[in-house]
Design brief:
heterodimer; A: 331 residues; alpha/beta; Alpha-Beta Plaits; 25% strand; disordered N terminus; disordered C terminus; B: D-Maltodextrin-Binding Protein, domain 2; 2 domains; four-stranded mixed sheet; 15 helices; 4 strands; 5% strand; binds adenosine-5'-triphosphate; binds magnesium ion
């Protein structure tokens, strides 16, 4: 993926003390694969923020988080968490981070409480403090009534909630969550969002991956969009939205557009770039407002019905689409 | 430093408790772990008893029908009574037909028929011989002592029994002849005849003493129960590598193993937490098999296992065999990708190591080349150690080499497992 990305050059990393998490040129090449899963990722997560890693399936989100969690070694590059190098400062890093893996990592034949108890003890907790933490985690997940149920008798959504609070049992200062809201109902999702905001308010740094644009937009102060293992753009959410504003036109057709559409549109004056993805078309133009009438006439002449048209967008989804050429939505 | 150690030990304890809880919730598996070796030992010790027949502790039932109550009947009965491999039943009045029926019904494996008046008939024939009656003119035929044998009785055992009867009869011939000659001398020379030398007590040759020399130069071969009890305990112990490796891989698939890797939990805590409950199961397996072999097997007509007199040596063997098995399971788990792979590979390997190591077929009956190959199998080391105690009366010093070999194997496997867990190999 070598599409030029004008945004990343304009972006300036915020200067507010040392970052909580910092990646410098991190790459990961899995054995037997010719394309890298991560390809020179530079990332800087300031303390006390909710930082979103946005990317479609296979973008490299889990790979990135596994490297931070010490489960994978980067093929090249370095990373620091809370000032500790991931290659040398593992023990110190483990004390400050809490990891929430993408798939629930729990013991199915143990109860909810037994899972919390075991992982709590593995984090070095014991005695009344451990009991308090277990109670607090059950409350956070609103799972008090399920405490003594075996995990294999829980629904998937509850399993995910448990999975998340296990990552919180030892009150980490840096929380790393890999797609915590996939495959759960709106109530559970908003519960998780609410909890993450509370944690953020208490000063915890949160790194969260997702492929839901709205989620990133609502929850995060900073995001990085990664695609094919590369960071396409990173920065504050409002900045990213502002940069993209007024520069493109998004259209969705009722039917599949003819294959030569892109070629036809490129002949229009004042049009910089056309990108067709199925029934979605994105057009970049220096002055979209002056282009608009010509464009609509052209489409009408070709008998193409529009389902939606937006212009001067302000949605991350469109930033995402613009950058990755994919909707990011599950297929 | 001390605090860190205590904290790590607390994690170790919690890991053991967690694993024990998970195992405890799998009742079917537990029942299988404990019943499998016991059932195997019962079935195989009972059914293979005869294959190990002529071995210490093994006996088979013999009926002597001594219709003759004279010297012939008594001598033969005496010999069988003194034979440790024989459980003797004596009858004076059973008929041949009855004896045949009992044999066919499986009550006896070998029947000796001594006809009524055998002693008298022998004496009469002796009289004719001493009187110089030529063979073709003698009236008395030689006495016919007959034996009936179960066709399943191994031919070599039958031969041994038959020749022991022949030996007894030679002795009887000699005693009867001497008595008869003395009688003649008394008649011709009066009470002051010159006595004959007591040839019988002047034995020229000592009784032949057998001694088996195995290639390792160590005395006897095991009896059925001596072979089977440790063999199946070891196999059951090593079979625990299947659930052990599967449970590891499940934990990896469930992600909890990765989760632990993001925490400050040393590899030895994770691996040891799993190993300890399995070690306990192994020890219970061994104790239950030994208990069954000592207390239950004799009730079912099998031979009682003699545990020897080195309980510490047995404990050492049990512990080191278990550690070897656990190490193997961990190494398999760290390399297998799926539970199917782990289960398939470890069970196949255990069967091969078992077959090679003299578990399925005793090493003593293997040809030399196979005996050499057998020494490659950890199960063979384990079995040798147990046999040192059961058969050769060995103590802790005698089982040390085998225990050390098992511990070295265990250390190697654990080392490979830990390095792999830490992602270093
Ligand atoms: N263990 C592995 N061996 C080989 N390739 C891998 C491995 N793990 C991931 N990959 C590849 O690396 C790339 C990135 O995968 P990754 O799991 O990081 O994506 P992701 O962004 O988390 O996707 P998703 O949204 O589906 O979770 C993919 O092409 C994937 O096939
Ligand atoms: Mg992922």
């Amino acid at each position: 993926m070598s599409k030029p990305c004008p945004l990343s050059q304009q972006y300036q990393a915020p200067k507010e003390g040392g970052p909580a998490i910092e990646l410098v040129g991190v790459g990961k090449l899995f054995a037997g694969r010719d394309v890298p899963a991560l390809d020179g990722v530079d990332l800087s997560v300031p303390h006390g923020t909710i930082y979103g890693i946005l990317g479609p399936n296979g973008a490299g989100k889990t790979t990135l988080m596994s490297i931070l969690g010490g489960l994978l070694k980067p093929t090249y590059g370095t990373a620091r968490i809370d000032g500790h190098d991931i290659a040398k400062g593992r023990a110190a890093i483990r004390r400050v981070i809490g990891m929430v893996p993408q798939e629930p990592a729990v013991y199915p034949t143990l109860t909810v409480r037994e899972n919390l108890d075991y992982f709590g003890r593995m984090q070095g907790l014991s005695g009344p403090h451990l009991q308090n933490r277990i109670r607090a985690c059950l409350d956070l997940a609103e799972m008090g009534d399920y405490a003594d149920r075996r995990v294999d008798q829980l629904s998937g959504g509850y399993r995910r909630r448990l999975n998340m609070v296990i990552g919180l049992i030892h009150e980490p200062r840096i929380l790393i969550l890999d797609e915590p809201t996939v495959a759960i109902d709106p109530h559970s999702r908003s519960l998780i969002h609410q909890r993450l905001r509370e944690l953020h308010a208490s000063g915890i740094t949160i790194l969260i991956s997702t492929h839901y644009m709205e989620e990133a937009e609502q929850l995060c102060q900073h995001i990085a969009i990664i695609h094919h293992g590369k960071v396409m753009v990173q920065g504050r959410v409002p900045d990213l939205l502002a940069m993209q504003r007024d520069k493109s036109i998004q259209m969705q057709f009722e039917n599949d557009p003819p294959p030569d559409l892109a070629a036809r549109l490129r002949t229009l004056p004042g049009l910089a770039e056309v990108h067709v993805m199925g029934r979605c078309v994105r057009i970049a133009a220096e002055h979209p407002d002056t282009l608009m009438p010509t464009l609509l006439t052209e489409l009408q002449a070709r008998g193409l019905g529009l389902r939606s048209l937006s212009f001067g967008n302000s949605s991350l989804a469109q930033v995402f689409l613009a950058l990755t050429g994919s909707t990011g939505a599950p297929k | 430093m001390m605090a860190t150690l205590m904290a790590t030990l607390a994690k170790f304890g919690a890991s053991i408790a967690k694993e024990a809880r998970i195992l405890g919730r799998d009742r079917q598996a537990l029942i299988l772990f404990f019943s499998m070796p016991v059932v195997f030992v019962l079935i195989l010790s009972l059914s293979l008893r005869d294959a190990f027949g002529d071995r210490p502790g093994a006996t088979f039932p013999v009926l002597v029908v001594a219709q003759d109550r004279g010297e012939v009947g008594q001598s033969i009965t005496q010999t069988f009574r003194a034979n440790p491999h024989v459980r003797l039943a004596l009858s004076h009045d059973a008929s041949e037909a009855q004896a045949r029926q009992w044999l066919m019904d499986g009550h006896y494996r070998f029947v000796v028929l001594i006809p009524a008046g055998a002693t008298d008939q022998a004496k009469r024939r002796l009289g004719e011989v001493l009187a110089g009656v030529p063979p073709e003119l003698r009236l008395e035929a030689p006495v016919a002592i007959r034996v009936l044998a179960d066709p399943a009785l191994r031919a070599d055992y039958r031969k041994v029994l038959e020749s022991s009867i022949d030996l007894v009869l030679h002795g009887v011939e000699m005693r009867l002849g001497r008595a008869q000659v003395e009688e003649t001398l008394r008649v011709t020379q009066g009470d002051h005849f010159m006595p004959l030398p007591d040839l019988e007590s002047a034995r020229l040759f000592r009784e032949v003493q057998g001694e088996t020399v195995t290639r390792q130069g160590r005395g006897q071969t095991p009896s059925s129960v001596q072979q089977n009890a440790p063999a199946w305990t070891l196999l059951a112990m090593f079979f625990l590598t299947v659930p052990l490796s599967v449970s590891f891989i499940k934990e990896r698939e469930q992600g909890s193993l990765f989760r632990l890797q993001t925490m400050n939990v040393p590899a030895w805590v994770v691996l040891g937490g799993k190993a300890v409950p399995f070690f306990a199961i192994n020890q219970i397996q061994m104790v239950s098999v030994l208990a069954v072999s000592v207390y239950v097997l004799p009730l079912l007509g099998g031979d009682r296992l003699d545990l020897g007199n080195a309980p510490l040596a047995l404990a050492l063997m049990g512990a080191s065999a278990s550690l070897a098995a656990i190490g193997f399971g961990i190494a398999v788990a760290m390399y297998a990708r799926t539970t199917e792979q782990a289960a398939g590979f470890s069970s196949a390997m255990v069967m091969i190591m078992g077959a090679l190591g003299g578990i399925l077929v005793p090493k003593a009956v293997m040809p030399p080349l196979m005996q050499d190959l057998a020494n490659l199998s950890p199960l063979s080391w384990g079995l040798d150690g147990f046999l040192d105690v059961f058969v050769r009366g060995g103590g802790i010093a005698d089982v040390l080499p085998e225990a050390m070999a098992l511990l070295a194997f265990s250390a190697f496997c654990h080392g490979v497992g830990i390095l792999r867990y830490q992602g270093r190999i």
